[in-house]
Structure formats: structure tokens, C-alpha cells
Design brief:
single chain, alpha/beta, 7-stranded mixed beta sheet, 12 helices, 45% helix
Amino acid sequence: MRWVVFNQKGGVGKSTITCNLAAISGRRGRKTLVVDLDPQGNSSQYLLGRETAASAEPHLATFFEESLGLGIFKRDVREMIHPTPVENVDILPSSPLLESLHGKLEARHKIGKLRAALDELDGYEAVYLDTPPSFGFFTLSALIAADRCLIPFDCDDFSRRALYTLLESLQEVREDHNPGLRVGGIVVNHFQSRALLPQQLVDELIEEGLPILMPFISSSVKVRESHHAARPLVVLDPSHKLSLEFEELFTAIEKGKMAGRKKAVGTRG
């Protein structure tokens, strides 16, 4: 199964969610791949460390350069995948060079190249695709390559307004490019259980029938510590409250355990 973690809004925790779910997948014995399509490379740094991520070659930009015919020769995508310190988790790392390739890739209609490469890639039971905070070539490539989409939701009114537009965009991708794409659920992140507004917003979304996943992921400075240590929180501190929430969320995603569903665009076959 291929999961894309997508939201056009920045700062909602896409990389944190991607890497912790991938780490849980790996620790449960599944060969897992992370594909980092964000030129900022947050998932790459989270799993490899800043220095290792910066020097990791070849990388995803290499793949896209060679798809444009810019390389001396065309390598197999397997050569661009790197092991991580996390058990059973590999990564196809990002690079700042992706930014300069964006326009060329759009102009040359290379939007299906990533999916084709992943289709030929054997041995991975789970693939998690991290996306940039924009709806451009790299995000669309990920959505075309994925089976399910996870949507991080930051509990504020701006995020709620953007959510409806995002669901409409997913429906367009489903109709135009990837009929098999489904919404795997909305991940409520940075949740503050003692604050009135977050609970009210989530209750309203559930009332509307949107596919809100349970449990919600709490807010904690421990996540920043895990970023600094370049170790997913579920690896750094498995007994921490957030780690246990991620573990429960992973199981809920697989079982489709949601507080509300049915009305969200693209959630049903």
C-alpha cells in the first residue's frame, strides 16, 4: 500500500506523521520506503540526520533529472534508495535541486514517472510519500503514485477552510489521473484536549461526516526533541504519550477506525 501525506498548508506535521508511521511499519516487520518529495527535505533529515541527508547521493532529484535526459546514463531507482537507522525503513531522499527541476518537469509532462518507477519496485510492503506544502508537480506526482491519502489537520479555522478545497483537489486528481486514490483519513495533529476551539472544530467535522481518524495526536515539545535527534519519536521514546498515540493511529489507519466518514469526497469506492 502506498500512502501519501498531503496538505497544502505548511506546519501541519506532514514529515512528522510520515516518518513516525513509517517507523512503526518498519518496527512491525514490514519492509518500508519513504519517498521525500519536499525540496526542504524534512523527512530526509528526520530519518538520516542533517549531514547525512545533505550528502546523500543519488537522490530523488537524480531520478527526475534522468527522466528529463539530463544525466549521463539512466540508473535504476533502486540505486537511489538509502537505508536509514530505523529498522526495515529505507528512504528515497529529497534534494534542494528539486526546486530547479519543477518547471522543466511540468513542461515535459513527466507527471507519471514516479508512479511508473514505484510500480516496478519490488520488496516494499508499505510506501509513505511526503509532499511539499503546495499543490504543484511533486505533490501531484505523489497523489498519482499513491493508493491512499492521509490529510494532517491542524486545529484552527484556517485549516478547516482549506480542508474543503483540498478534498475537492483530491477528487479532481481521482477523476483525471488516479481513479484508485482514496482518502485514508484526516489526522488531527497538534491537538490540545483542554482547549475548547480544537474540540469544537473536530466535533463539527465529525458531524459533517468527514473521515476523522482516531486517536488525535497531541501537541508536545518532545516532537521537536525527536527532530533534533534525527530519530522518529516512536524510536526515540516508545513509551511517550505521543508514541503510543502514533501506534494506535497506525492501527486505526489500517482498520479504517474513524470517528466520522461517508460524506468526504473520494473516501468510498
